[in-house]
Amino acid sequence: MGVKIYTNVMLDLETMGNGPDAAIVAIGAIAFDLEAGELGPGYYNRVDLESAVQDGGVIDASTVTWWLQQGDEARQEIARAGGLPIAVALASFAEWMGQTTIEAEVWGNGASFDNVILRSAYQRGGQPAPWAWWNDRCYRTVKAQRRHVPFERIGTHHNALSDATSQALHLIKMLRPSAFISGEPR
Ligand SMILES: [Mg+2]
Asked: Which of 10, 61, 114, 125 could form a disulfide with 108 if both were Cys (CB 3.0 to 4.6 A apart)?
């Protein structure tokens, strides 16, 4: 039996900034089949903030202040030790993309956020980004055009994998309502 290969990925970063060079503290993603309304494998790794900053990642005071106001579970997750050096995290995400997807459309929450920040990190680190720029897709744009479709949260708010999963389900619900079952992946 072959392993299923996906052509859509929802990406969610947790960062310490909101510009294109924001320092990344977690990378979450989930592969999905938009036509079938199915979720596939997920990816999650935390990134060592110091390594992200050494690699040119930028910390913004406004984002740090915002983090201080978020829930305990999400804050503790990004504050605890043991994140991967950014170069290792980027290589590991690229490996996951290579194993899980082909010519994937990569969805981020905002035309200037997740995809741009992650691609910038690959550029600064001298590693090839594991998806093509013409496959950048914006979940936030779809959401703005389908305001009547309710969003259902799975897991912990601001955990990158939980956020990516919730957003992928919402996107399926918006674009393929007939394929959507509810809540958990089929
Ligand atoms: Mg998030």
From this structure: 114
